[in-house]
């Protein structure tokens, strides 16, 4: 599928694309898609001045998100792997064409698709405000705030460690209000910036893939990081993307769960490649996941403000099917099970309301549900054959270096899940 992404309206071009996407605006033609109109409006309203490379990165991220929504896996040759030929308008086409191979590689790892990029002139950058009009953000770092439990713990810990972060969010139905509520815990010390990419595409895939979603979160964070005073003074700014190490590594539970059920949104391999990309771009931002070697249970146990996390933990979101279930936790998907196991490890009462709460009920909607059974099978395989055999080649990558810490995290994560399921006599 060939997709041309540009801020320029109008249909005349020489790219013979299957789909044109208007970036940072709305399309005039129903056959075209559009994405990101409200982003630049938000930047103008905040009176900030991001760097041109950060705008280019955001243009690329929006283009990738567009492809992820517009591309149909069922129409691919194998029913899964899509092939995208992307033509993206940027400010610095020569630099980004030099990074096309790395970008294709990291996205291939992230989405399990084949990506090809050509960058052309015409990239988006709003007119910079006068220096007397734009503000420089005094905070010392940026943290991504999703409304999830891990990001909540992350921001609590940063403040407890006397950091002064800016919280950045992607507006998500069902989570937007809790994002604001979590940020307000620390008002006025933690400013909160919510972005909305307000997208629309003809013939979108249903349900949408969303495997590429983390690239837009990172692009938002980097956009804001380049507006910090420290960045303007040529100091390195840290962007915190907080996720427990078990879910970040997200080992496939069984041999049948390697596709859509094994996402890599914060996988260390992906983040290391993304760091290489932004370093090549001269973006003085370091991406850090301080919990890459911790399970969700360990994050709760070690949270540096236990009073706060006890008050707000149950209000966070973890469910992988949250929207599908009317913005309620299902209680039986892998993210919900990891969450429930974490609460048990924490030894605090889980006040979350789960639709499928009592997993001792031996029916297809409860104990026999696919995710529950898959975790039970994985636990048995680790018990019978050992962790290394169960993992197989999942951690075999030179980019990771010594994997002993990752293996330990997975081992503890499996143990947390086992203890939780034992409470329902499932294992």
Automatic annotation (TrEMBL):
Pfam families: QueC. Keywords: Queuosine biosynthesis. GO terms for biological process: tRNA queuosine(34) biosynthetic process. The keyword Hydrolase does not apply. The keyword Glycoprotein does not apply. InterPro entries: QatC, QueC, Rossmann-like_a/b/a_fold. Signal peptide: none annotated. Gene3D superfamilies: HUPs. NCBIfam families: QatC. This is 7-cyano-7-deazaguanine synthase. It comes from Sunxiuqinia dokdonensis.
């Amino acid at each position: 599928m060939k997709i041309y992404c540009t801020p320029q309206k109008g249909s005349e071009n020489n790219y013979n694309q299957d789909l044109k996407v208007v970036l940072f605006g709305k399309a005039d033609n129903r056959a075209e898609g559009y994405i990101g109109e409200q982003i630049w409006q938000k930047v103008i309203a905040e009176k900030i001045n991001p760097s041109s490379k950060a705008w280019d990165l955001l243009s690329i991220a929006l283009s990738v998100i567009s492809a992820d929504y517009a591309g149909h896996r069922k129409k691919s040759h194998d029913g899964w792997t899509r092939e995208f030929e992307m033509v993206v308008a940027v400010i610095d086409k020569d630099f980004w064409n030099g990074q096309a191979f790395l970008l294709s590689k990291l996205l291939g790892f992230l989405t399990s698709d084949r990506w090809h990029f050509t960058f052309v002139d015409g990239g988006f950058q709003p007119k910079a405000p006068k220096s007397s009009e734009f503000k420089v953000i005094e905070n010392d770092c940026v943290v991504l705030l999703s409304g999830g439990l891990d990001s909540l713990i992350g921001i609590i810990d940063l403040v407890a460690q006397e950091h002064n972060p800016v919280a950045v969010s992607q507006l998500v139905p069902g989570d937007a209000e809790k994002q604001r509520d979590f940020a307000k815990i620390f008002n006025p010390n933690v400013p909160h910036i919510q972005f909305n990419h307000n997208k629309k595409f003809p013939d979108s895939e249903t349900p949408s893939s969303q495997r590429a979603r983390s690239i837009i979160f990172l692009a938002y964070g980097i956009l804001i990081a380049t507006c910090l005073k420290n960045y303007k003074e040529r100091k390195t700014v840290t962007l915190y993307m907080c996720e427990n190490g078990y879910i970040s590594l997200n080992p496939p539970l069984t041999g049948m769960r390697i596709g859509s059920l094994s996402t890599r949104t914060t996988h260390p391999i992906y983040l290391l490649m993304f760091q290489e990309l932004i370093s090549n771009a001269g973006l003085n931002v370091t991406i850090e996941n301080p919990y890459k070697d911790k399970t969700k249970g360990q994050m709760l146990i070690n949270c540096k403000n236990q009073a706060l996390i006890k008050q707000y933990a149950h209000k966070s979101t973890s469910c992988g099917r949250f929207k599908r279930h009317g913005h309620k936790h299902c209680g039986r998907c892998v993210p919900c099970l990891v969450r429930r196991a974490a609460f048990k490890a924490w030894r605090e009462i889980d006040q979350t309301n789960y639709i499928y709460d009592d997993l001792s009920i031996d029916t297809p909607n409860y104990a026999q549900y696919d995710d529950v059974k898959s975790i039970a099978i994985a636990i048995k395989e680790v018990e019978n054959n050992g962790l290394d055999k169960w993992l197989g080649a999942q951690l075999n990558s030179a980019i990771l270096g010594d994997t002993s810490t990752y293996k330990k995290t997975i081992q503890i994560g499996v143990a947390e899940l086992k203890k939780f399921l034992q409470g329902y006599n499932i294992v």
